[in-house]
Amino acid sequence: MTPRIGSVCTGYGGLDEAVRQVFGGELAWVSDIDAGACRIIRHRMPGVPNLGDLTTTRWEDVEPVDIYIGGYPCQPFSTAGHRKGTDDERHLWPFIAGALRVLRPRIAIFENVANHLRVGFGSVLVDLADLGFDVEWCVVRADEVGAPHQRRRLFVLAVAADAADLGHEWARTARGRGHGPADRGDAPAHSHSHERVGEPDEQRRAAASPRSGDRLELWNEYAPAVARWEAATGRYAPWATDDQGRLSPAFVEWLMGLPAGHVTDVPGLTRTQQIKALGNGVIPQQAAAAVQLLAQRAGLRVAAA
Length: 305
Description:
Blueprint (H helix, E strand, L loop, with lengths): L3 E5 L5 H10 L2 E6 L3 H10 L22 E4 L22 H11 L3 E7 L7 H10 L2 E8 L12 E8 L41 H11 L10 H11 L15 H7 L15 H9 L4 H15 L7
Helix pairs in contact: 1-9, 5-6
């Protein structure tokens, strides 16, 4: 049975792509109100309904899903902001918790900045426990999957306590929570992890260098990092600035591990909207590595080996 996925704060769909890599599945609906993100959704996810504002959505009228996901706004928790946490008007977690209470998905997956662990995360864990979820979480850096930047992000996997009763092929196995230690050694249940989740294969890392030739010399001291991500993504890095000396959206798109044009070829999207969408986005490779790790720790069968 193919799991149905509901996505909130969808953006360009980076977390959606990662979850589908790990669990398979199809998008039943998405939710976003940002004008640029909505353009991307219409272009890249044709036929998938956009519910719009999750704070006003009547979840009783929404199709139930097996997996509920979202990279909810990081501004209340980010070190770049005022860190008001639950007092920030942009704090959307209570509305997400309300959606979970109605929809009762088997699995929920979330992404946010790493500093969320210090600001506001306690209320998330309390709500998920009250809703009957077991929770695993970890912090993964983008450079741990080969990216030329850190971008530390928190990933959360919540599994309904009765998920073992499901018939889905991706349901919890007998090694799930309550049946033994976490997959990595004797790590306790419900502990966050800063473990490195995987370096790029050395042969793939080196593969870009011979074919790049003098081109990589243009990146000076950044050449090894650029070559590593080129090998991981399978495509050359666009130049970092445009003909006006501004940061190039195509370069940011490459930094985020996306296919060429995923955001920059969307019709009608302004440069400002492109940069905003990319800056708010999730790196699929980073998210997939994190979700894969958390699924293994939770004892879930997944589509990816």
